[in-house]
Specification:
By secondary structure, this protein is α+β, with helices and mostly antiparallel strands. Helix content is 23%, strand content 33%. It contains 2 helices and 20 strands. A hairpin with a 2-residue loop joins strand 13 and strand 14.
Length: 262
């Protein structure tokens, strides 16, 4: 009976983590560029009473094994980098990536982080930055006398200067992609950092080399589906309840066994 309790307890722990992950997905349903995650599970060790292929008491070969598992455990959070829907904002500094790739952001310690959130702002010096003030790389500085900002699908940044109607190119945006984006480490603030599992970034001009295009005046929405997450939440809840029922039933069976002596 104790084995059943321990096994069911692992199921409850796993489904609690599942609910925690679903809650995070739902809480970020309106977060620009957010990518939903799915919790993955594995079964735990098995106690083997009889191996398949061994000889039985009658000398015949046993076709199947006899083993009992000891529950489940969470092993990975698989982040899904499918594109979210694109919403037109009309803001000149809002940029959406149509396809694969990440914007590059310079962190205060000099390292590079990556994001799909293109809701950029202008700093006091005219530098294109994130909402937290981290500059976009390569650095783009908008002149004080600029009257109009234009970003092409391949990342060319141009402005019109007061007194001159001819656009002047002032910068070139680049995107980065990874052979295994699921291996990136989510660090909050809509940012990811490189890991050994993600591989090194492959940078290039947007709309080339497998990188997505840039759409100005638009933002990529979260790829979280509320309906899917609600279904997952109900399934996790039912699984949690049935595992708790297993513990309750095992306890009742243990009490019955203890009362046999009486």
């Amino acid at each position: 009976m104790i084995k059943a309790m321990n096994t069911a307890a692992t199921g409850m722990v796993a489904q609690q983590m599942n609910i925690d992950n679903i809650a995070n997905n739902l809480s970020n349903v309106n977060t620009t560029g957010f990518k939903k995650a799915r919790l993955e599970f594995q079964d735990i060790l098995y106690q083997n009473y009889r191996k398949a292929g061994t000889a039985s008491a009658t000398g015949a070969t046993v076709p199947v094994s006899l083993d009992i598992g000891y529950g489940t455990r969470a092993v990975a959070t698989a982040r899904q980098f499918s594109s979210g829907s694109v919403t037109v904002s009309g803001n000149a500094t809002d940029l959406a990536i149509g396809g694969d790739g990440f914007f590059q952001v310079e962190m205060p310690d000099g390292t590079t982080a990556y994001t799909r959130d293109g809701s950029f702002k202008l700093s006091a010096d005219g530098v294109l930055v994130t909402a937290d003030g981290f500059p976009v790389m390569p650095t783009v500085t908008i002149p004080e006398d600029a009257t109009e900002l234009s970003v092409t699908i391949d990342g060319q940044v141009s402005v019109k200067i007061i007194g001159n109607e001819t656009p002047q190119q002032i910068g070139q945006l680049e995107l980065a992609r990874f052979i295994n984006p699921a291996g990136l480490s989510a660090v909050g603030h809509n940012l990811y950092t490189e890991t050994v599992a993600s591989g090194t970034p492959i940078t290039g001009i947007p709309a080339s080399e497998g990188l997505g295009r840039i759409d100005q005046g638009a933002l990529e929405s979260s790829n979280v589906s509320v309906v899917d997450e609600m279904v997952n939440m109900i399934m996790a809840q039912r699984s949690y309840e049935i595992n708790s029922k297993v513990i309750q039933t095992s306890d009742e069976m243990s009490q019955t066994t203890n009362n046999i002596k009486r």
